[in-house]
Queue: 3 jobs
Job 1
Amino acid sequence: MEQRAKHDMAEAETVLELDDLTIRFKLKRGELTAVNGVSFKVKRGETFGLVGESGSGKTVTARSIMRLVPTPPGEIVRGRVLFEGESVYDKSDQEMREMRGKKVAMVFQEPMSALNPVFTVGSQIGDALRTNLGMSKQEANERVIELLQLVGIPSPGSRLDSYVHEFSGGMRQRVMLAMALSCDPTFLIADEPTTALDVTIQATILELIQNMIERFGMSLIFITHNLGVVAHACDTIGVMYASHIVELGDTRELFKNPQHPYTMGLLNSIPRLDTQSKYLTPIKGLVCNMQNPPTGCKFHPRCEKAMDICRQEIPQMKEVAPGHFAACHLHN
Amino acid sequence: MTENILEVRGLTKHFMLDNDTVSRIAGKTRTLKAVDGIDFFIKRGETLGLVGESGCGKSTTARLITRLVEPSGGDVLLKGENILDFSRPQMQDVRKTVQLVFQDPYSSLNPRKTIMQILSRPLEVHNLAKTWSEKRHRVLELLGLVGLAEEHADRYPHEFSGGQRQRIAIARALAVSPELIIGDEPVSALDVSIQAQILNLFRDLQEQFSLTYLFIAHDLSVIRHISDRVAVMYVGKIVEAGNVEDIFERPQHPYTKALLEAVPEADPDKPPPHLVLKGEVATPIDPPPGCRLCARCPLADDYCAEVAPELRDTGEGRFVACHKV
């Protein structure tokens, strides 16, 4: 998981752009803004990490790229998603079908609920190939074996007729990855792909994803709450808190020089492997209630450095160093 | 204070699979060796971290020690007495000494009971509070200990976040003033910022009540943070045990080494995670003789495949089960 050379990336073209994306859900118990003014760009060949705690809006952001947010109850209030320069939300259903799978593919967190338990692995992956690429059953089967081999499933030929429950967690995640890669996408969205897995299996899957990216020149959005994983797997990181991106920047810069109190808090609160300290430094308080969020900066009730302005105004993203953005009133 | 509050010798739990009449006659029953003869001890006042990947038998161990699952063999000595010989009333007393905190605070608290009811239940069972006002007083005290407010007492579990629920589960364990608390992945369902709060709470309570912990987790950095000594499990066996510094700085068993190398550290300048072990975790169902790791181990030879290594004392409180060390 080497960090790729930065100069390559500066020249690379932008593949995906989210601009002021705001998504609101109308629920029985009230309205909830899950994603609020989120903007970021992903360049070709780049791995973008989206970090945040549960409920911060990472998954909804990722799903909106593939137009997988159900409307209703969801509603795109503002903003747009541009994939290869075209607005995803202006595409017809036919065009969306072309995009999903062939250009953009997704790996979900829980392979057990994302894969179909009543179809064999071979037929599920083959289905995508036959629908999207118009392959015959025979061709599809051959390609599936190739794919299973690629993701490191031993004796793939004999596993074609296996069902998902016959695979272990790590193997299921490989099947998901094989399915996502089946139609040679140029863009992969991985939503907590290793969260349910043990560390040794996690290391294998991360290595595998990294290989795939390098081999096929893919771009990747990597969603996780594990700061250890992003530190090694991603080039750029966006930190989400309560529906906002609060900090955005190059991985090394963000870890060495965090500018938002939430990012600093997160980095301080994780136990370390190299030293032992008696007490950790947690972020005080609880994650805010998203149906009734605090005014101004959503983090202010938990922030040590909160000022009057934090209670009134939502801070805008500011460039604090070249390519490093933070949304905090401290940087005014 | 070096007395062992708990000592486990040759603790074993074998589950019979396909254990129906037909399979028995056909000789096709299988044995799942969830915990296969483990030895360890916990000194009074210390924290023993038990770490391993899913399915290695960590949780079963916790349940065996408390006899929530009946062991197939071995001894569990609590303050020198073998609790496996105890009668039900005697076990009642053991439960006053040993308490459990479970992983998922969403399923370990009864959704139909208020926090007051949940926390007063252990007081009733063990006759620790007689009158309502005594109970109320104790419950409010417990809530204070875990950082919750008095007004929380009359609410229901669904009104609380995951971190707060885990505080309630800890308060329930504290209700009977136990000496040993077994935490079965008590922080793994929590977000990092909340996880740190709960880990600090565990520390505070340990100091305040001189508690002993058996802390089970799969997250190595959590184990490193909380433990005084660590035992590493792999497929029903303890492969290495020792002081936390020794295990993390100078791991000896190939499995411990591989586990540590696979952890991505939250620092981009640290070496990236790296996988030494090939293949999948071995199955505990009818395992072959020999070392459980031998199919994946870079050091394994024919001898490893035939003879299972014993957990040997290698000095300075370190125990390793490997022929190659």
Note: Chain B has a mean pLDDT of 91.
Job 2
Amino acid sequence: MITAYNLTKTYGENTVLNIEHLEIPKGQSFGLVGNNGAGKTTLFSLLLDLIQPSSGHIINKEVQVDQSEDWKPFTSAFIDETFLIGYLTPEEYFYFIGELRGRNKADVDALLSNFEDFFHGEILGQKKYLRDLSKGNQKKVGIVASFIGNPEVVILDEPFANLDPTTQIRLKGIIKDLAAKEGVTVLVSSHDLIHVTEVCERIVVLNKGEIVKDIHTSAETMKELEAFFAG
Amino acid sequence: MLKHFMGLQWKSFFRSATFKTEIWFKILMALGALYFIVVFLGMGVGAFFLIKEMEIGDPLRVVNQFMIYYLAFDLVFRYMLQKMPVTNIKPLLYLPISKSKVVNFSLGKTIISFFNIAHAFFFIPFSIVLLTQDYPPLQVIGWHLALMALIYCNNFINVMVNNQNVVFYVIAVLFIVAGASQYYQWFDITVYTQPIFDFFYDIPWTAIIPWVILIGLYYGAFAYFKKHMYLDGGLAKKQTEAKTENLEWLDRFGNLGTFLKNDIKLIKRNKRSRSAVIAGAFFIFYGLLFFTGALEVYDGPFWKIFAGIFVTGGFLFSFGQYVPSWDSSYYPLMMSQNIKYREYLSSKWYLVIIATVISTILATFYIYFGWEAYAAVLVGAIYNIGINSYLVLWGGAYVKTPIDLTSNKKAFGDKQAFNAKTLLLTLPKLALPIGIYAIGHFLINPMAGYIFVAVFGLLGFVFKNKVFTMIEGIYKKEKYKTLLAYKQK
């Protein structure tokens, strides 16, 4: 589904990302881990054409992302709060994203009804603008909005951070289902090793911009990762 | 302690993320401030003699008569532009500094604000002129001190009513109604207020009264802030109850409707954009200065075109100018969503066009000043639609300063308003149509001048697709720089 070729990103002398080859097949749940500054968000930003690669390119389902905008209809993401429109209510935001993705109100409502327990009664019908929601609730809105319109690729940067334990557990279920049942390629980054090993079939470790481990998740994965990060 | 506070101020000024890049703006700010100083100085020195020449009475009494408007206008101006002192208090809250000190410092800081100092450039020279004209010194000093106190009273009133829109609008409306009824001679508020100001002059020791009020207001503001210095009190972001709106009537425009809906919400729900639109609406009346012959300098034929452009282009200049910065806080979303640049740009374009058409309809009352006045308005509208609408979008590609939607301050008192490229682009917006008109006016006749400008505007309209492709290209080229710039708040 997604392939990166000779992808690098440098700022001045400083190379923050250097990936020779990375291929993510369709329907894989892909986990990205690494310390601060490892290049996780850089990779995701490149995937969304928010920054330009210094060399190389990314192909997302036969579309080169820095050349054409045609990857947008089947790709969605939640990176940070800049993906939210602060002056909308959650409902309006969902409908807005829905309209951009060719979904009418009824479609969006049907999708949202699946997430009622995920929202925990704190999102819909609250008479609050997104900017007035707590960080955790904002995140819930952003994550659910990225599921609107049956995207084939979903990119979530640090989806577990700031969420309460109950929601973390629910989110893990949702992500697993997306990949397993609906064939969606899910890309997730996290600092929490336990969460990614639970959710992702495959885990890639970035260190200083380079891929240092590429693991198919198994019972030993957790130990392997801990050993790596303990240094 | 004061030293620490001053140090923090100093650093926050010189180390702000945009300090170096926006040096242009600082220079312009300084020039703007200088301009006001010169205007105030000129008024201070000249007002006395000007009024005397007009022979409408004792200059001091005339100034006193209109002083109520001066103060009211000052208050409105402050409300819109003066920055509030409470920002950046948060990190100081849990430090071992007494709250009184923090509040005193924050309030004290407003005293040396330009909004107060500027008035000194009027009152000091004016008082000196009075003294040289043999007005009794004691009485002049009393009057001067009283008015100084009143200016500072405004300062603290503004501090207290800030963010209370209701109070502001009530004052603004009262002010406009009073002004209008005076103009049409229904009711003259100055009859009642003039004696107050005369009083300070006639009985100089009464100047103590405004000072007592001032001290009272200071303590009022002090107590107010001290009491509200909690995260869930005065420092909390104000939350308004949200209402979900569907605006379904816009659905028929397809994707375009989606964006228009969003833009309407953007304008309605954010302070900053709301004030931009209100400011734009006021431009409709700007033409009155030209067409009524109120100001002699504006009597030339080209000024009519100039007026036409501004009357119908208020929204274009106040809102359109800052596309795409309005969307700066969620630009990454817009760039990764299923949105084509062209659709995004055309929705903004349509918004500008719709607003221009509405302004043109509202400006129909200029017919009262003769066909030529309304022709200028119409021609201005055509030029705005055909040419200026593209130019603002084009210029927008270079505006890379994020806009904080929730804050009204800095609406044009801050770096967001200017940069070199957008300034250059204002030239064709205003100078070009005047030039085209001049050619027609001098070669043939005024009518031809209007026709030339209109034809130019229509030509722009015809080439819409071509121009859009070009603008789209520029936006794409600038996309990454823009994204990066918006990240640095």
Note: The radius of gyration of chain A is 17 Å.
Job 3
Amino acid sequence: MRSHMSMLAVTAALQFSAQAAWANMVYVSNEKDNTVTLLDSATMEVVKTIDVGQRPRGITVSHDGKFLYVCASDDDTVEIIDTATHEIVGSLPSGPDPELFVLSPDGKTLYVANEDDNLVTAIDVEKKSVIAEIPVGVEPEGMGISPDGKTMVNTSETTNMAHFIDTSTHEITHNVLVDSRPRFAEFKPDGSEVWVSSEIGGTVSVIDNSTREVKHKITFEIQGLRSEAIQPVGVRISADGKKAYVALGPANRVAVVNAETYEVEKYVLVGQRVWQLAFTPDGKFIISTNGLSNDVTFIDTAADEPVKSVTVGALPWGVAVAPN
Amino acid sequence: MKRLKILCRGFIALLLAAASPVPAFAAANTDPDWPCIQRKVPQLSIAQVWTGPDLPENAAKWADDPAISHLATEMAARRNTVEDAQKLLATYIQSIPRHEINDKLMQLFQGIFEKLNWERQQIISGISRYAAKQRDMAADLRREAQKVDAMRAKPDADQAELTKHNDRLTWETRIFEERTQSLTYICEVPTILEQRLYKLANTISQSIIKE
């Protein structure tokens, strides 16, 4: 009996360590209650909630997983959180009203969209100093960076443009007109295309990165749903470049798009007002933040089915997952 | 809040610049009478909130059943918390035969959906009226500001009259600014109703008996 019990204990320990090995921490910024919720990607349960600055929105993890960066929009700063201790260990000079940002592939530069000032601020993460302030269109928001780090794309909500910025000169090289209120820019992993979502236009513009022209526009139709409820926001493309996921706001769904044919293959019902998305590093799950239902949904990317919705803080906005 | 600050600043700048008030409203929206940052969604669709089975045709006849009609009113009413509404539902389910539950629940959902959607539409029209009134007020204030400027420019201006006009302008600008600030709360009301509807729809669909 005793040996049986110890066998069980060993099995349980093995299972636990096996699970712990591939578990990644998921970080969700809650815009309304000024917190970040930490979830375990394996158990899909809340581990901890930490207090951060006012109106946290954009959120990302350093490539080594040691630091979490959070845009505290109403505090006009980007907070740095140590992922081991969960303490705020510093801040970055983001400029006013930071909303979204993107970290360069080498992890050294953070590009921040300053919604109030029509600027993109480039910050040296190590020195915590501003490298450049780049004037862009009115109400900059979406930020994407090419896999080679040479091109950054910023979208401006009111000017309805995707601005292509050369990261070596910090100059805008191309302005591409997209549909109304662009919210997010995502490069394909091979750098061939940039996908830009338009919240009011209800579309995703696929921009050819070599010609810097819109080569395709993805539209969404959901039976029984009025078109104005379909508001594309967050976009993520799988590591193999074959599948894309688009959060559709008050349509309460995530669209699954074939990234090679641009056909919408499926709509996954998740929660209320779907905002942003993030993959787990193994690509097996994509997590959506659902602002009004105050939860996040884990979607299994093999079946494209929702697996679990977990209640987080008030008005979950951004989501980031720690790397392996 | 930041958005509101921008809007407020926009309005004040607008008054000072005496420019057309329309762009401040319309900057991010296509409807000039829609002042909220969220895109205007005038009506909700069942597909946005309902995860249960397809609603049968007789769901539309929910008002014919007095018990369903009463329950839909009580569950939709914001004076009752969502938890209280869920308790009312549980009590109702216990009071009807098992074979009737699914049909009745789908009728109930249709009733709650129509009631909350209607209430939300009324609020959205109210917000549009509010926005139109703000634009009119902005136009009045601009005229008044021009009048005060013109009086001030005259070397022989009647100081008492000038003070009277200036005080009026200051007072009305304050009212205008406070009304602009209230927009944040007003714009949140449709959202509150959507959240309620979503929660109630989930509770009802989870109570549907799966054969």
Note: The radius of gyration of chain A is 20 Å.
